Each structure stands twice: as C-alpha cells, then as structure tokens.
Amino acid sequence: MPLTGIRVIEMAGLAPAPFCGMLLSDFGAQVTRIDKLEAPAVTNTLCRGKRSLAVDLKQPAGVAVVRRLCKSADVLIEPYRPGVMEKLGLGPDRLRKDNPLLIYARLTGFGQSGPLHKRAGHDINYLAISGVLSMLGRKDENPTPPVNLLADFAGGGLLTAFAILLALLERQRSSEGQVIDASMTEGAAYVSSFLWNSRVSPLIWSRPRGENLIDTGAHFYDTYKTKDGKYMAVGAIEPQFYQRLLKGKNLKMNPIAWCVFVKYTYHFSYIVQRTGIFLSCLCYFLYHCYIIAKL
Question: d(Cα 132, Cα 117) in Å, to the nearest integer?
Fold first, then answer.
C-alpha cells in the first residue's frame, strides 16, 4: 500500500475529519483516533481500519499522551474550532517544536483566519457562503443542498487528504513538516470550479438555476418517475444517445425537438468534432423549415 509506514493521529470529530482519516487508512496509513472518554458508545461509520484510544484531554496526563504520540507521528488531523488545540497545549507551534517533520492538518468550516473563522456551521452554511448552493436545484424552487457531500466530504475531508499527500511529498524534498489550513467553504468553492468557469459558455452553464444543460434544464438530462413508483435517470447528451432515447420511447425527431437539443448541447468545437452528424441533422432541420415556410 502506498501509505504503509505513515502514522496518523486523528482527533475525533464529525464527518469530514473521520473521512479524511479513513481515506489515509484505506491506502495503508496507520491511523490512531483520539476519542473522548465521555463519547457515546456508538459505532463510527468512518472508523474503518483505525485504532482508537480514549483520552481525557481535560487532564494534563491525557494531553501528555497525545503529545507523546505526535512526537513519532507523520500527520495530525484536527477538526476543532480555531484556538481549541492551543488551549489544550497541543497547538502546531508546540507539537512541531517536538517533531519538526509533523504535518499538522487543521480542518474547519471557515479556516483559521478571516471574519467567519470563529463561527460554527454545517455543510449547508458553508455551501451558502461559498455561493455554490445558489446554483443547485430546479427552476423556480429553493436551492437544494446535495446532503452534506460537497462541503463536508468533497471540499473538506477529500481535499484535506489530498493536501496531506502533497505535504508528505514536499517533506521528502525539504525535510520539513507544515501546517495545513483547510476550509470547507473554500474547498466547496474549489471543487465547484467547473460551475463557475463554464459560465462563460452560453450553452453549458450561463442561465439561471435549473435552466442549464446538466441541472435538470434539459429534458434529456433528468430523472423521471416510472410506473412502478421508482425512478430512472436519463443522460442522453450526445446525438447518438439522444437518438437511441427517442427510439426506445418510440418517438420521432421533429424540428422543435431538435432545436431544443441543439440549444443545450452544441457549441462550435462540439460541432466541428461531429461534423458529419451535425450536417445531416442540419439539412433535416432546414428542409423542415423550408416546408413550414411554404405553408
């Protein structure tokens, strides 16, 4: 496994930090989770492959245990609000003085600095602040958060794990550890780069929420309820797949349907790549426009 021999200390927390630790564990790292003594006896669904050590961090002896573990660790993951670890005597300055090679990963909602850094929040709040939430959902409906996947897991745990891997790589070159300041708000914005960058294209993501190619604005990229009360997903963006969709539904292409399809799916480079298909369909469309004009 690529991370075999890497020792990770994970301070117990909610979804993003345990997910980050689980990712590292899945690829061979030895992850020890520091749990609270008073924590409820429930099974953490993200504890796969980890060791667990219950420590009373309110006592100097408990703090000493964590400090001793960090002296020989490669990575520390901590998900607390800014200042909490410093109050415990486990801040990055002290632990990296004990172990200059330590990679100290701090995972919070708004980062370690800035006007919101001391605020509490949840995935939906981070999505709202990032601006991403405003782009998710159907037309004329409230923005819809995709449960807590974007900020907690993608922008939080996953990107923090990625940052840790980069820090481990850099440590091989510099022989120094570092402090990672991971913000779930900034992470959510980053993993949504495609949404922002594609707004420059008039045919991909330039219209309001729920009116674009892949946000339920197109009839050929959506979900539909079936007769048995379940649902099916339709993703027929390319012409050959759209034609198969029509064939499967016993429908025929008509000028109006083709106009809608072209409106959502074609820009110049796309047309150039599929010149033969485009020209044949264009001739079909122009022919029908000619017939309509003669009526």
Answer: 19
Q: Give CA–CA dist 79/160, Å, rounded.
A: 11
Any idea which residues carry the catalytic annotation?
122, 152
- The 10 Å Cβ neighbour count of residue 145 is 20
Closest CA to 17 of 180, 161, 127: 161
* Of 17, 106, 107, 24, nearest in space to 8 by CA: 24
pTM across the whole model: 0.81
Q: Calculate the CA 85 to chain-centre distance.
A: 26
Q: Quote the CA–CA distance of 9 and 78 in Å, as a whole number.
A: 9
pLDDT digits (tens, 9 = 90+) for 4-37: 999 999 999 889 999 999 999 999 999 999 998 8
Count each helix (H run) and each strand (E run) in the chain, helices first: 12, 8
Of 50, 63, 65, the closest CA to residue 18 belongs to: 50
CA 78 to each of CA 18, 40, 90, 92: distance values in angstroms, whole numbers, following the listed order: 10, 20, 10, 10
Burial per residue of 257-269, b for 16 or more beta-carbon CB atoms within 10 angstroms, e otherwise = ebeebbebbeeee
Alpha helices in 52-157 (DSSP H): 60-71, 84-87, 92-98, 123-130
